[in-house]
Amino acid sequence: MKKIVKITSLLLVLTLALFAVACSSYGKVEKAFLDNGYSLAQEINDTSKAIKEDVEGLEIDAKYYNFIKSGLANEVLVIEFKAKDDLVKASRNLTSINLQLSGIDTKAETDELYDSLVDAGYANGNCLAISAALGGFGSMLSDDYKIIMKNA
Q1: pLDDT tens string 39-83
Q2: 146-to-15, 16, 136 alpha-carbon distances in Å
Q3: CA gap 149, 128 in Å, rounded
Q4: pLDDT tens-digit profile of 121-151?
Q5: Nearest to 129 by CA among 74, 60, 70
Q6: What 3-state class would DSSP assign to 89?
Q7: pLDDT score of 10
């Protein structure tokens, strides 16, 4: 009986450990951007800071990463949310984000909205990528980050 309890406990611990590691897709997103010639900025820029303040206003915890590639309008903000639902909430409720989501119906049901963000290349797992260049309007000039997100 003690062996069954020990084995069950061990399996539970291993399952929880794997779940904790598998929760975030940021590692593969970061690798994809770095492999495509982007570098990780030491600080987020003013556009990203404004978006960060908006997200924090919704009381959503997230991490923020600016990726930069030489050339015009190649600065991307990747927001790592704790959960997919937080990503959807921010996408739906923040003008600073949803103005950049061209072709996305932010009023759609949660799963449908998330799927459309993934299909369009804005989301991958719990990460959302949007342009952080030219006051947030760089997405009109360079969409390579969407391809990177789709392939991450």
Answers
A1: 998 888 888 888 899 899 999 999 999 998 876 567 889 999 999
A2: 32, 32, 15
A3: 9
A4: 999 999 999 888 755 454 444 677 888 888 8
A5: 74
A6: helix
A7: 41
d(CA 46, CA 33): 21
CA distance 98 to 40: 24
Single-letter residue type at 125? G
The single-letter code of the amino acid at 86 is: D
14: tokens are 């291993």
What residues have CB less than 8 Å from 48, skipping those under 6 apart?
A: 64, 66, 77, 132
Alpha-carbon distance of 101 to 78, in angstroms, equals 14
The two structure tokens encoding residue 75:
């600065």
User: What is residue 130's three-state secondary structure?
Assistant: strand
Give the pair of three-digit tokens for residue 96. Answer: 């600073």
